[in-house]
Structure formats: C-alpha cells, structure tokens
User: Fold this.
Amino acid sequence: MQDNQTWSGRFNEPVTELVKRYTASVEFDQRLAIFDIQGSLAHAQMLAACNIINNQDLADIRKGMSQIENEILSGQFEWSVDLEDVHLNIEKRLTALVGDAGKRLHTGRSRNDQVATDVRLFLRHAIDEILHLIASLQLALIELASRHTHTIMPGFTHMQVAQPVSFAHHLMAYFEMLKRDAERMQDTRRRVNRLPLGAAALAGTSYPIKREYVAELLGFEGVCENSLDAVSDRDFAIEFNAAASLLMTHLSRLSEELILWMSPRFGFIDIADRFCTGSSIMPQKKNPDVPELVRGKTGRVTGNLISLLTLMKSQPLAYNKDNQEDKEPLFDTVDTLQMTLRIYADMMGGITVKPEAMRNAALQGYATATDLADYLVKKGLPFRDAHEAVAQAVRFAESKSCDLAELKLEELQQFSNLVTDDIFAILTLEGSLAARNHIGGTAPQQVEAAIARARKYLEGKH
Ligand code: ARG
Assistant:
C-alpha cells in the first residue's frame, strides 16, 4: 500500500501521473485552507464534547492546527499534489505533527461534508467583504451625485435625446441598482450560512454527534437538514454567482456610459489618468481601459454562472466528483467582483464632470418637447392633439436649425393658439427638471431628498 494515499488500501496499482494531476485540486483549493482549519477545529471540539475523542486529542489537534496555520500563512507549508486536495494535505501534516490525534480528527466526517462546509465558510466571508465594497461604491456615487443635482444632461431613450435629467439623477439610478444587488447578496448569505458537517459522506454518521453545536461554533444560522442535500447541492454558490452576474451587469452598463461620455463626441466627463492607458501607436489616445475591462469581465462572471449551473444540472444524489469543479469559477467570480468594486469606487471619485458639454447636448435634441405638450394639456388640449402640435413645432424648429425655446412667440402660436409668453420659462432645461417634482423624479429637490435617503440607508449599514 502506498502510504501517501489515504484510500489506497483497496487498490492494486497507483493512479498514473496524469490521472493524479487530473483529479487533484490542491493547486486551487489550498485557498480554502484557513476555512478548512476552522471547520476541523469546530468538529474536533464537538467530538471531544461528545466524548468521541478525549481532551488530550483535542489539545493535540489544536496545537498541531495552530502550527499548520502559521506554516500556511508564512508560505512554508509544503503542498503536495500526491495528497490530492487541501483536506488531505492538512490532515496528513497534522498527523505528522501530533500522531494519533491527527488520525482521529476525521471520525464522523467525510471530505464530502468537509468541503461543502469549507466552501460555505469561504463564501460567507467573501459576501461580507462584497457587501462592504458595494457600500463604498454607493458612497462614491452619492458624493459625486450630491455635487450635480443642478447639472443638466440629456436623458436618453434609444440613445436619442429624450428629456433633460440631472447628472445626479442619472447616477442615483445606479445607487438603486446596487442597493438591490446588496439585498440579493444579503439574502443569499442566509442560505449560504448553513452547516453541512454531520452529513458525513452522504447518509449521516453513526457517532453521537451534535451538529447544532458545530453550527454555533462556526457562526452558522442552522444545519442543513438533509444529509444527501448537504453534501451534494451547490445552489448557494450558484445563486451567489447569479447575484454577482447581475451586479457586474449593472457595472457593465455604467461602464458603457462612462466610455461613451468620455469619447470626444460626448465629452461629458473625463476619467482620471490612473484608470486609463495610452496607445502604443497613436500618441493622442487616452483610452478608458478600466470601464472597458469591467464590461469584458462581466462576460467572464456570467460565464462562471453558466459553468456552475451546467456542473450541477445532471448530477444524481449525492456527492459526485464533478463538484470539485465548483471552486475555480466561484473563486474567479469572487476575485473579479471584489477587484472590480474596489477599483470602481476609486474611479467614480476620479471623474471630472463637464457641465457645459452636458448642457449643450441637452439643448440640441428638443429635450423639452414633452414640456411643451404638457403645457398645452394643462391649458385644455387633449394629450394626443398636443403631441401632434408639438411634433409640427419640432419639425418647424428643425427646418430653422434652432431649439423650441428659440422660436418666436408668434411662430409657436402657429401650432396652437393656447401658447402665451409664459411658455418660455417652461421650455428651459431648468423648468423641465423642476416640473418633475415627485418621488423618483429628476427635480433637484427630489434628487436631493433621494440622496439624503441614500445617506441614511448607508449609515444604517455601519
Ligand atoms: N476535493 C474534493 C472536492 O473539492 C473534496 C471531496 C472529495 N470527496 C471524495 N469523495 N472524493 O469536492
């Protein structure tokens, strides 16, 4: 029997080198080491409390694990691909350090419930960091928005100038999206935070264990209530990745806008140099690389979601080795999302706004045409007739290459005799914003109230 393979007693020959590398996960799952140790310490404490191992064994396990943790954190731990995964590497080292107590640790447990526990501990930790990072980005959005409740830009539909909005209002739309993203993460966390340990390989264990005690030690909100389900499903990782994909999708949309706004055709903003790069051939270029990469990496995170869903879809109960493939997509999603959020908060703080360019763009696309129609409606014209009258007026202004506000009173009156000279206040960009004065509207007063609510919401998080 090869002594480096825990299960090898029943085998006639070792696996080939290639199969060993193919089946091993230690190269990537060593990242779970700290959580693996946490889980093992809680498991050992429960085994001792239930008199399944004695207190000396527990003391030895604690001592050994503390040394292993130091070795790992200082980079001295020797990971071996012969030992397949993070669990066997640590267990083997523990046994080398403390002898029989190390061999007793695996009593009443399997790598199947062990790995599910590790992944949940890892993900819970990752989600907490993500929630914190979302809040930082939201704060950066609020800071920028609070300076621009009176900065007017065109709002678009179909990428055509539609109606004027404030830049702050536009930014606060992303605050709302991120708020829902945070809610989704928070909600996912409740289902991540359940203990699989005790399920053992799949059916539970014959030892008199106390699962609730282990759950309490590890800060889980409860135990997984079916052992087969506990070791096999990765739905918690999938729903996390779904929430992450949506979050990235929101950031991808914002990135697309930053890219457009920074192009000279818009010239609405400038992004600080530290987020841009130049071209190796065109000396004049300054490219918005970071937002472009966020857009690109969104595909990668969504790809990870598809990987995880596909990984799960044909697995019969209970644990299958397929599940070992959950880690790389999950780690990649966590890393990509955390890095993106971290950079994004800083990038929003480094945006220079060009209010004149925004204003000029808003003046060009007949953005206040709806205001003219609403004015006529308030004077008694049915909306559909008002719509038609204004369409004619826009056509006329277009033929003269001017804005509605630049037409003479008599010219406007050709389209409706309801127009009087109070119309010019209505046709200004400021008038248009101020008129949308209800919750959710773009009037500066409303957006200021939205920002105040947002600040309060964020304060409640700390
Ligand atoms: N490395 C494995 C994984 O990530 C651990 C569980 C292995 N269990 C087993 N019966 N082979 O899923």
The longest strand covers residues 160-166. The pocket of arginine is lined by residues 25, 29, 85, 111-112, 115, 319, 321, 323-324 (CB under 6 Å). The mean pLDDT is 96.
